[in-house]
Amino acid sequence: MSSAPLLDVRKICKQFPGVRALDGVDLQVQAGEVHALLGENGAGKSTLLKILSGALRADQGEVVLQGATLDAQDTPRERQRLGLITIYQEFNLLPFMSISENLFLGREPRRYGLIDWKAMHEKSRTLLLSLGLNVDPRREVRHLSVAHQQMVEIGRAVAQQAKLIIMDEPTAALSGREVEILHSVIRDLKARGVSFIYVTHRLDEVKQVCDSFRVLRDGRLVASGEVSTVEIRDLIRLMVGRDVEFPRLARRAPPGTPVLEVKGISRSLDAAHRHAMALEDLSIEVKAGEIVGFAGLVGAGRTELARIIFGADHCDRGVIYLSGKNVSPLRSPRDAIRAGVALVPEDRKQQGCFLEQSISQNMTLPSLGRLARWRIFVNEAEERLLIHKYQTALRIKMPNSTSAIGTLSGGNQQKVLLARCMALQPKLLIVDEPTRGIDIGAKAEVHQLLSDMAQSGIALIVISSEMPEVLALSDRIVVFREGRISGTLEAAEATEQTLMQLMAISAAADAPRAVTA
Amino acid sequence: MNAAEPAALRRFDTIGWLRRYGTSLFLVLLIVFFAAENSRFLSMRNISNILTEVSIYGIIAVGMTFVILTAGVDLAVGSLLAFAGMAGAYVMKAIGADYSLSWLVALSTATAVGALVGYLQGKAVTVFSIPPFIVTLGGLTVWRGATLILNDGSPIAGFDASYRWWGTGSIIGVPVPVVFFGVIALVGYVAQRYTRYGRYVYAVGGNPEAARLNGLDVAAIITSVYLIVGALAGLAGFLLSARLGAAEAVGGVGYELRVIASVVIGGASLAGGRGGIGGTVIGALLIGVLTNGLVIMHVSSYWQQVVIGLIIVAAVAFDSYAKSRRP
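ok -> structure tokens follow
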């Protein structure tokens, strides 16, 4: 560490309402180094990346690139010009334009003031070949695979003379072979003096491609060092040790008869969902009064399976039984709701709420069939009773039921969505990310509600990226990795370490194998 | 809880009030202004004229409100009005017009043709995922052309008194088309405000993905709104032919813009999920009063178009300004 680092981040602090996202974080990256940035969801990685890329401003601290302190007011565009380039999970490509146009967007080679197409395609071809990609640069980007689109992103970074490329979970949507290709490109660029910050949840990749690492937890730096001197299990320990634990909720009576049985659900990749993971032979069972937790990284198959069980997506093979009856194929959420399944979706704003519409509309929409007179008119008196019942039971804080749901806090919005599902009196309730983006007090309340619902005999599936949440809520935990179930654990024997091992280490890696149930 | 805060202590929100009632206030001001300018404006005869004129496109605007609530649009209603009206008169004549209840043949044919065409357009939107703008832009020319083909471009005239009554008669002093408009607006209002269907339409417009995940049949709901607006355009086509005494191939040219303008001035969002029949009725009246008032003041029809266009833009501009101000 004798030479001056390429990037030197000093004492970055960032406060969000109610949360200290970053608390005095340092970060150094040498020229030609791949630096792994590790941490659980909510540890502050994304905030740090956004501050580096110029999408967010730090409250305190400074960013020094090659000895020059960067202006905190820089826009993402200005940071790109300085050679600090971020590649997000959702690519920033224009799907209907050619590879060349994407590579040289805003910097097209010109001749007599007009775009010199011939030169642009030639330069693009050379650039792509240097990345080991032999495709026609005139092709539209939307026809490329995810891996090739990522190469175009990297190519664009190279074309912009990138000094430091920040990659946020670059392998989340790649297959094993594609990951190898990506890694070899990273090694090539490294040899040319380009540095990387590599954010990943897959710890075996840290060993494969990274030189140094840094672990964040709850907005603080907890460890850093050379990858060669550290074992994967140490990294796991560093990531998960934490100050705030959710209390493990009191165990309930032993669960009853099976409500949901899923057998052999498989789905191959199709062109329409290129970011989706192929699913292979997924089988689970959920009993009445039981909470089954789905753990796994984003895209590992947990939400995908839940959406198939809810009829929102289709599968190629597999059978679904509800209370012993074969209900597959479920063609739509409508079918699933009729069969007794309810879902609180992953993305509250995009998939859950009608933000501009009233709380009552949001809470009773799927139940209107039962609240109607002569199947046509909404029985508003009965509707008010129902709203009042759940407002009291779930302690929803709201001015009145006619205000727009968008005016409520995240926690109260989530409670309204839970109430919506409870009003359907489902046999099986699936809750995807039950407490994403809500404050700690509301989290505890939602946990208690879910536990109470299981107590009342409903079968529950809880999907969460937060391991403490899965551990606190579940009776049994199903772990997903790369479209397969990598293990099933009884809650009593599960720890964050065992979960992390099942989630984050691919079977091929020579890391210590996970303890399985 | 905010509800505990006494209403009297809250500062009066002028912009919010104007956003809600501004259009009605403007309508009242216009009426006062035109009445002051010309005493003929508030004569029974003129009021009846305005209302009858408004009713023809107002009936369609009721249906268009549902379409726009789902974030769609129907540009074909003017042409469909002519086509359905022509088809009604044509079928009636083909059967032979010299029998009682001949009007019933025309009325039901026009409405059924409108509903069928609306259904087909709705299916094109939902089954083939073609944007409604494109489907109905096609419809705009297809149905106008079909109207011309149907009777070689000439009007069908020579209706009996019972037919004409639907356009020119009155029920206890109220012109028949106005009664229709009133009843249809009321039914539309009740459907929107008090029925499951109304809730579903708002849900589909507000967030189609969330609507699907709540078990709604989004495609069926979208198809239904085009069916409704089509049926109402057909009905309006019958009423217009009865009023004019002829089904004309050029009937209802440009109505689509007047209809959409009524809905938008009435506060609906083209992005869907926001708006209502009450606002649409005010919007339709505003356009009717303005057009009639400008005629009475001898403002040239060229300038009328300029004024109406500016008012549409101003209404929406104010709405987005008021919206952006909200905390």
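Residues 218-244 of chain B form the longest helix (27 residues).
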